[in-house]
Amino acid sequence: MSTAQAGGVFHRARSRTLDAFPAEKEGEWKGPFYFILGTDPQFGLMKAWSTGDCDNGGDEWGQEIRLTEQAVQAINKLNPKPKFFVLCGDLIHAMPGKPWRKEQTEDLQRVLRTVDRAIPLVLVSGNHDIGNVPTAETVEEFCQTWGDDYFSFWVGGVLFLVLNSQFYENPSKCPGLKQAQDQWLDEQLSIARQRNCQHAIVFQHIPLFLESIDEDDDYYFNLSKPARKRLADKFIHAGVKAVFSGHYHRNAGGTYQNLDMVVSSAIGCQLGLDPHGLRVVVVTADRIVHRYYSLDELSEKGIEDDLMDLIKKK
């Protein structure tokens, strides 16, 4: 994960926190704000999907470059500026060890360096970023390239938790790393309860579920029933209000008790009928309101008046 882009270099999250948001300054509620959520730019998937070879294809990613450039341009035009821009995983398509991984990474970094320096950038690890079965080596590669694979930060009295969801999918080759995240997460959720924060919000690549906590295991697009239920119950007990994910390349989501599961479609390759887009998320004192915009719509029209009214309301 990285924060504000300065001098063409990514400032990486270290020690499980972000220097863009000093906790001592951001621990108290200061009024409504908003952030932008994108997911799955996944440089290379559009070509791989079109040829039917998602494992080895993906030798072109010009379309994804143009779409991500359009997303960044739309974000940079917004006024007032979002508190941050989060990309919820699958930054590139080439898995660890696959061809074109270095080139896709360099091209994505080049585009992301054009994000307004006043808008911190938060990057979440996806399965294509660290592998479907991550290892200590693939996780370390991600951390060296983009920053910590899980961490927390505060913005205006709201606690944000960024998780490595691949540890809940298949940690068989790095059980110690999964155990470390579990322990850290328990500590963070305890802080959320003790501090009685305004809201707590989670970012992770793989959704807990697509529509219902009781839906069948998809074996790819959602977490297994035991894992999702265990996590969801932990989140609810700690007062987490929403989980935002990508991975599905379609818009979806549902509610479990008072926990919203928001699945956002992709900047890059679409697997359903949604347009390439971004999600605007407004955080008010008592609720979290979000809306998906196509890149064209956000570029041409900006954020609609009803959401702007919530942002400006004191």
From TrEMBL:
Described function: Protein phosphatase that dephosphorylates AKT family kinase specifically at 'Ser-473', blocking cell cycle progression and promoting cell apoptosis. May play an inhibitory role in glucose uptake by adipocytes.
Protein name as catalogued: Serine/threonine-protein phosphatase CPPED1
Catalyzed chemical reaction(s): O-phospho-L-threonyl-[protein] + H2O = L-threonyl-[protein] + phosphate; O-phospho-L-seryl-[protein] + H2O = L-seryl-[protein] + phosphate
Positions of the Calcineurin-like phosphoesterase domain: 69-250
Cofactor: a divalent metal cation
EC number: 3.1.3.16
Organism in which the protein naturally occurs: Aotus nancymaae
Protein localization: Cytoplasm
Source superkingdom: Eukaryota
InterPro entries according to UniProt: Calcineurin-like_PHP, Metallo-depent_PP-like, MPP_CSTP1, STPP_CPPED1
Keywords from the named record: Cytoplasm, Hydrolase, Metal-binding, Phosphoprotein
Broad class of the protein's primary localization: cytoplasm
